[in-house]
């Protein structure tokens, strides 16, 4: 049996001001690091057969905090990077709405029809997510695998795990920074056990 512990990176400075990162990057905020430390404490006794992170600095920094005192190497995989958002990257959500109103409307309300402009479509993301999961299925890896990635990529993974259509991408739950989802691969099927859990920061 393989169990995936899927975590979104911690909050970044750009997240705080609603500035779109995509393949660009900004540093984790103090809150992002603190939340990662709290999640790390929660899972400190979980043994991981491996750790895979998006190559983006914000994901790698989160992965290192979560690893804690373990000596497990952190591998990277470009297939689990955030959506490439082309000309939107570096802009705030407000600026995107102003300059790309029709495209933004499609992005939010008809994700199955969003073409991606000079970046990726959601269909492109779905293809690479399936490729990543298919490789895991064919591997002989067992035990627990920590996967540190991005919010939109996790939403795409939910589509696969729940067997729902791309048009329903934006259904709940939201994927907050350092949220934890756990999915089991056993008997040739995925079972979502924990979905976007933030109990490590509950007051």
UniProtKB/TrEMBL annotation:
Active site: 9, 82
Pfam families: His_Phos_1
Domain of life: Bacteria
Coiled coil: none
Residues making up the signal peptide according to the UniProt record: none
Keywords on record: Glycolysis, Isomerase
Family matches, as Gene3D superfamilies: Phosphoglycerate mutase-like
Single GO MF annotation: phosphatase activity
RNA-binding among keywords: no
UniProt key word Glycoprotein: no
InterPro entries to which the protein is assigned, alphabetical: His_Pase_superF_clade-1, His_PPase_superfam, PG/BPGM_mutase_AS, PGM_Phosphatase
GO cellular component: cytoplasm
PROSITE patterns: PG_MUTASE
Residues where substrate binds: 8-15, 58
Protein name per the record: Histidine phosphatase family protein
């Amino acid at each position: 049996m393989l169990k995936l512990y899927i975590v979104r990176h911690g909050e970044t400075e750009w997240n705080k001001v609603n500035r779109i990162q995509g393949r660009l990057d900004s540093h984790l905020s103090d809150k992002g690091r603190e939340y990662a430390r709290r999640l790390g404490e929660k899972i400190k006794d979980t043994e991981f057969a491996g750790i895979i992170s998006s190559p983006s600095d914000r994901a790698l920094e989160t992965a290192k905090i979560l690893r804690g005192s373990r000596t497990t190497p952190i591998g990277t995989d470009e297939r689990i990077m955030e959506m490439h958002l082309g000309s939107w990257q570096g802009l705030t959500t407000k600026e995107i709405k102003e300059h790309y109103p029709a495209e933004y409307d499609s992005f939010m309300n008809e994700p199955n029809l969003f073409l991606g402009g000079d970046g990726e479509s959601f269909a492109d993301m779905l293809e690479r997510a399936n490729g990543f999961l298919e490789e895991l299925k064919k591997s002989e890896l067992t035990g627990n695998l920590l996967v540190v990635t991005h919010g939109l990529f996790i939403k795409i993974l939910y589509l696969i795990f729940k067997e729902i259509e791309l048009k329903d991408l934006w259904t709940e739950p939201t994927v907050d920074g350092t949220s934890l989802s756990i999915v089991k691969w056993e008997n040739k099927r995925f079972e979502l056990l924990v979905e976007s859990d933030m109990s490590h920061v509950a007051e």
